[in-house]
Amino acid sequence: ARVLEKEANERRSPLQFVREPLNGYPIGLAGEHQRWNAALALACLHEAGVSLSYETVLHGLGSVCWPGRFERIEQDGAVFVLVGAHNAQGAEALVKTWRQEFGDRKCSLIFSAVATKEVRAIASRLEQVAEKVRVCPVDSPRALSLEELASAFAGEVACCATLEQALADASADGVPVLVAGSLFLIGDAKARLEGGTWMASEQ
Q: What is the DSSP string of 104-171?
């Protein structure tokens, strides 16, 4: 905070800290961290001079939707939760939110990632809530191999040749399915579960 205050003073820029999460409003996004995000968003709007009524804020926060951020999709009796988690901090927030939403209930985890230094840190956090772990490839030139993905986890891992296979196998486990990791994986899973078309990236 002192570094930010010093920088703001040098630039003669106003600085305000958000010190509490926003409570008292229903928020359409899961996780305590989203209450902090909401508090920051409202503080920004206030500083920008945007006047919002209680009803507007209530409606906006209650109906907000962010695809791939603890997004639930139900299909044929199975519950799928899609979460982009491409760093350790995101994985930590995911695990905390999972426990808030599902308690001690474990998941069937489907994971994939592109090359990053944090894959082991992400995996170590996600396996805390996983009953079973499956890895599958993603359509990206930077995708990690199945062997590299599996070696990131401490426990037993099933390697699936395709996401389609991983989804089919996980949906038969009888527990919620958590699809987490690269946004390439999340986009592909969302398209498959909702019957859409996934446009692969060249990155």
A: T--EEEEEE-BS-TTHHHHHHHHGGGEEEEEE---SSTTBPPHHHHHHTSSS--EE-SSHHHHHHHHH
Q: What is the pLDDT of residues 48-90, one digit of tens each?
A: 889 888 888 888 787 676 666 799 999 989 999 999 988 999 9
Residue type, 196: G
**Can you tell me the distance from the alpha carbon of 163 to that of 51, in angstroms, rounded to the nearest whole number?**
46
- The tally of CA atoms less than 13 A away on the side-chain side of residue 158 is 17
The b-or-e profile of 128-159 (16+ CB within 10 A means b, else e) is: ebbebbbbbbbbbeebbebeebbebbeeebbe
SS3 82: strand
Contact 152, 181 (CB under 8 A): no
Question: Could you tell me the two tokens for 15?
Answer: 């600085």
pLDDT in tens, 171-201: 999 999 999 999 999 999 999 999 844 444 4
As given in the structure block, the two tokens for residue 185 are 């994986």
Determine the Cα–Cα distance for residues 74 and 58; give it in Å rounded to an integer: 26
